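Allow me, if you will, to draw on your knowledge of protein folds for a short while. I have a record of one protein: its chain in single-letter code and its fold written as discrete structure tokens. Could you please explain, in whatever detail you think fit, how the structure tokens follow from the sequence? The record follows directly beneath this note:
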Amino acid sequence: MAKSSAPSRDRIVAGAADLISRRGLNAASIREVAKHAEAPLGSTYHYFPEGKQQLATEAVRYAGTAVAGILRKELDAGPIAGLRAFLALWRGIVVESDFRAGCPVLAVSVEEPPADELPPALVAAAEAFQEWERLLVETLCAHGADPEQAPGLAALIVASVEGAIAMSRAERSMRPLDRVAQQLEALIVGAVGRPD
């Protein structure tokens, strides 16, 4: 039986997410993505006939969904457990890449879009951040946080972790992420009145 073509497409999307997390969107060409994903260039164009923006959008959605899945699972144990899992995910990516990779969602978000359009990859990035925040808000509220303050705390968590990832890469040290983790845990405990 012939193998499904899905693994090749999935490999390309995952490879694109990884390459974008390392180099940013503008520096990641279709050719480089194919090479990074160890996929034929023709397959890349076959699966993504609209080109780089289509591939980037899929890569951002892939990364956003993967992170949301981890958050969703870990947040069942409470907001502190979810935060720790969120931090552990990024710590692993940054350390295992020797500070070369960060968050592909952030990487797409900080690049200047064309003046005359809103790229779908940027829209996908906004949707990913919103989903992470929504999951955090739900858990914070379920564990006793004030529903009016929970959205601000969730935004602070996502923004702080994303910024700490960038700082850790720049400093080639996990110290910024560790400091942010400590402060965010204290804020969560203050908001819910107990660790979990």
Observations:
- The first helix runs from residue 6 to 23.
